[in-house]
Design brief:
There is one protein chain. The protein is α/β, with parallel strands linked by helices and 217 residues long. It has a single domain, classed as Glycerol-3-phosphate (1)-acyltransferase (3-Layer(aba) Sandwich), CATH 3.40.1130. It has seven helices and seven strands. Strand 3, helix 4 and strand 4 form a beta-alpha-beta unit.
Length: 217
């Protein structure tokens, strides 16, 4: 029965997405990078990821964005998330901070060096919510690819009583996706300082998305 869940979830999210009024900000700055096929590392908070695969598919059709490789944990939930993402044309690398993390980061680094875009959820899979873990900073420092903070918001939306306050947009909601400015991490940068910079930039992008749909702080 669980094998049916990713397909049903993807169909439900696609149907939901068709009802949303979407506003995208920061796309103009990314178009030249997409055309040049410069590898990018996207970051989005765990609580905002539900419609991100659908949003990526929409941006590929409308704006020339590229498909991304995403990181999913090796847990059973991670398996379902991986199958869900694949239904939107995304490639998946399996691993997390607790299981297979180093191997997964090496695979992502190889993908970036081969010219792929990747996406990470830097507070997942277990939190704490909206606190950046070090993997994404290590990946950026190792590969030289810039990090793009991505804020996603919707109003009205249901927020689950989970550790990440997982957001589920209500049909016909206003939705916003905000691409923040590129965050560069050099190989010899202080990792704690870099982690603080990336976390702040991701918070700013998320708050900007909330503001666009009228969510108050």
């Amino acid at each position: 029965m669980t094998s049916l869940v990713p397909g049903l979830a993807a169909a439900a999210v696609s149907a939901l997405g068709a009802t949303l009024s979407v506003r995208a900000a920061g796309v103009d700055a990314l178009r030249p990078l997409w055309r040049a096929r410069r590898p990018l590392i996207y970051a989005v908070w765990h609580g905002r990821i539900l419609i991100v695969p659908w949003l990526n598919a929409r941006l590929r059709r409308q704006e020339g964005a590229r498909a991304v490789r995403v990181l999913a944990s090796r847990s059973r939930d991670g398996q379902m998330m991986a199958e869900f993402a694949r239904r939107f044309g995304l490639d998946v690398t399996r691993g997390s901070s607790s299981r297979g993390g180093l191997e997964a980061l090496r695979e992502l680094a190889r993908a970036v060096r081969a010219g792929e875009d990747v996406a990470m959820v830097p507070d997942g899979p277990r939190g704490p919510a909206r606190r950046l873990q070090g993997g994404i900073v290590a990946l950026a420092a190792t590969t030289g690819a810039p990090i793009v903070p991505v804020g996603v918001a919707a109003r009205p939306a249901r927020r689950l009583h989970s550790w990440d306050r997982f957001m589920i947009p209500i049909p016909f909601a206003r939705c916003a996706v905000v691409f923040g400015g590129l965050v560069e991490v050099k190989r010899h940068d202080d990792r704690d300082e870099a982690r603080t910079r990336v976390e702040r930039a991701l918070e700013e992008a998320t708050e900007a998305a909330d503001a666009l749909v009228g969510v108050r702080p």
